[in-house]
Design goal:
Strand content: 5-15%
Oligomer: single chain
Number of helices: 12
Order of helices and strands: HEEHHEEEHHEHHHEHEEHHHE
Strand order of the largest sheet: 3-4-6-5-10-7-8-9
Distance between the termini: 20 Å
Length: 322
């Protein structure tokens, strides 16, 4: 559904008084939940309003700011010539210290229409209470900020207007890595294959949230690295196959990130606390980055690069009807 074709949705949205209540449940003015069966024609507009609300919260509550990532990136060109606006340029969100803070958490959600700041759109409108902490990435953001980590929220699902697949998601995170860092789950594995040296020196921990994991032979250097630095958090229906996999107290794939937050941060923090010898900026800048892919949650050190020139965006501007 395109919003231009569904002109009734904005008026309907305002008339119904949709909002997040004091418990962060998405309800109408009567306190009723969204009913997909009878209101599905308005679903995409509702999700647009929710997305704008989340973007507003990222900026207001956590002081994130939006950055356009170049559709293409030639590191040989001057930074000021890089084009950062246009339909092919995706927008990511970052804390203002993402270049200066040596401890950086990068989050990339799974495949679908999910934007930055969210794990699963449908959890907002599934008719259940208490879904905010499962649907949003806010519990991860709050814990990371409490640890004084910088954060980048990627957006591999809205890149260049192309169909979403492993390749397009991988290219998105490649550009985020190269442009912002000097930088979903399959993408993390692709990133490792492309830039093993830089990955080994800078990435300290990877949390896979019910997604594809490395199948490298533990007896190889690659397998040994993943066994030491990564952990997979799986829903209950999947068997735990190795020592670096944990089950999460849910059988719902979409709820895994929200339910697993304490387990994930217990693992990440343990790895970061071991990370005392952070490479200098000169050492980091001397490394050569290559093609990469998507991640769910990863922690790395951040170099000092030329500052991008983010411009104000209406992508995160609060809509009068929200």
């Amino acid at each position: 559904m395109s919003f231009s074709e569904e002109e009734e949705s904005p008026d309907w949205y305002i008339e119904k008084g949709w909002h997040f209540d004091q418990n962060n449940d998405f309800v109408d003015k009567e306190g009723r939940f969204f009913d997909f069966e009878s209101q599905q024609e308005h679903y995409e507009y509702v999700q647009l309003m929710i997305r704008r609300h989340i973007f507003d919260e990222l900026q207001r509550r956590f002081d994130f700011y939006p950055i356009y990532v170049p559709a293409t990136l030639d590191l040989k060109l001057p930074a000021k010539t890089v084009v950062r606006r246009g339909p092919r340029c995706p927008q990511v969100y970052a804390t203002k210290d993402y270049r200066s803070n040596p401890k950086l958490m990068v989050i990339v959600q799974g495949l679908g229409e999910v934007p930055p700041g969210q794990w699963a759109r449908k959890l907002f409108t599934n008719g259940k209470r208490g879904q905010w902490g499962l649907a949003t990435q806010f519990p991860y953001i709050e814990r990371a900020l409490a640890e004084k980590w910088a954060i980048i929220l990627c957006d591999p699902n809205h890149d260049e207007g192309k169909p979403k697949n492993r390749k397009t998601r991988a290219l998105h995170v490649q550009r985020v890595w190269e442009d912002l860092i000097r930088a979903g789950t399959t993408a993390t594995l692709d990133l490792y294959e492309a830039i093993k040296l830089e990955f080994n020196q800078r990435v300290q921990a990877i949390a896979f949230l019910d997604g594809e994991v490395s199948r490298a032979d533990p007896s190889t250097p690659e397998g040994e690295w993943f066994a030491k630095h990564s952990r997979s958090f799986r829903k209950q229906s999947l068997d735990v196959a190795s020592t670096n996999e944990e089950t999460v107290a849910t059988s719902d794939h979409d709820s895994v990130p929200g339910i697993a937050v304490k387990q994930v941060f217990r693992f990440l923090k343990a790895k970061v606390d071991q990370f005392d010898d952070i490479p200098s900026r000169a050492e980091v800048n001397a490394l050569n980055a290559g093609p990469s892919s998507a991640v769910i949650s990863t922690l790395s050190s951040s170099p000092q690069l030329s500052e991008p020139n983010p411009e104000p965006s209406d992508y995160g501007t609060k809509d009068p009807s929200s």
